[in-house]
Amino acid sequence: MKQVLNLFKLRIGVAIAFAAAAGLVVEGGSGPGTGAAAVLVLAVLFASAAAGAFNQYAERDLDARMGRTRNRPFVTGRLRHGPFWLWVIGAMLGASVLAAAVATNVLAAAYVFLGAFTYGVVYTVWLKRRTWWNIVVGGLAGSFAVLAGAAAVSPAPGPEAAWLAVVLFLWTPPHFWSLAIVCREDYAAAGVPMLPVVVGDARAARVIFASALLLVAASLVPAAFGLGWIYAAFAAAGGGFFLLRCRALVRHPTRLAARAAFLASLAQLGAVLAGAMLDAALLT
Predict the structure, then answer these.
(1) What average pLDDT does range 220-234 have in this prediction?
(2) Rounded to an integer, what is the distance from CA 206 to the centroid of its chain?
């Protein structure tokens, strides 16, 4: 079971699927039935899992040079690095997109595909080894999950869902750069130009704090477009907690403070998505 969680990155996949569910709920209207909605969320989860597995398949050489990842199954040989797994990954993605199209509509299915493609190809293959902007562009993967959920209800997302997509986009850089400070030596050894490797921990910490400020400000905007006090309270609490941890990271740019900021980013995202779903369910 641990190897499955590792290969398919199911922890982040669950967060991405949660984002899709939030997009569906906040869009409101006469959306798909419960069964179709569940299929869509599972399709996002499986597409994310396929992208996560492809990430490990494509990065076996990098993973072998990093202490955090050198025990991944394609590195150790527990899983054979060969065409079979490319077929498995492709079949998972194809089945996910098809299921989303049948259960909801083609537009939602397109967003499911784009989310996996952004992470698997745009981020992993095209950008990660070339530029520190890799994770900035890669943040679109989470945005597409929100848009997939909203598209199951309406072809044009309302302002609440659109802003949640913006929040997912803005959330990814400070979240991942915090982890990159923790793992800076690994990324440096692998030759991956993550922001802390390029500019150092102290400057990266200041960028994290500035990007977190932008994220938290954006996370409050949906309260002006239909989401109410429940959402505002959750977003403010989660955002305030994240900013405190980012401020502490600026003062002391250590691995311990970076790990605390990384964990706080997860709490912030959970608060935003949970608050949005509770607000839409209880107050509309």
Answers:
(1) 93
(2) 22
Residue 229's alpha-carbon distances to 224, 233, 239, 283, in angstroms, are: 10, 6, 15, 9
**Domains of the chain as residue ranges with CATH:** 1-157 (1.10.357.140), 159-284 (1.20.120)
pTM of the complete model: 0.94
Mean pLDDT (whole number) for 3-20: 87
Helices (H), the chain: 2-8, 10-27, 34-58, 60-63, 73-76, 83-103, 106-117, 134-138, 140-151, 159-182, 184-190, 195-199, 201-220, 229-251, 255-283
pLDDT at 1 exceeding the cut of 60: no
If one counts every other C-beta atom within 10 angstroms of the C-beta of residue 91, the result is 11
pLDDT, tens digit (0-9, with 9 covering 90-100), for 166-206: 999 999 999 999 999 999 999 999 999 999 999 999 999 99
Q: How far apart are CA 219 and CA 168, in angstroms?
A: 9
CA angle 54-170-237, nearest 5°? 115
User: Does pLDDT of 117 surpass 90?
Assistant: yes
Four-residue CA torsion sign, 119, 102, 5, 58: negative
| Contact status, residue 146 vs residue 20, Cβ threshold 8 Å | yes
First to last CA, the chain: 40
pLDDT tens-digit series, residues 77-102:
988 999 999 999 999 999 999 999 99
Three-state DSSP class for residue 9? coil
Dihedral (C-alpha) 276, 277, 278, 282: value to the nearest 10 degrees?
A: 110
DSSP string, 171-232: HHHHHHHHHHHHTHHHHHHHT---HHHHH-HHHHHHHHHHHHHHHHHHHHGGGGTT--HHHH
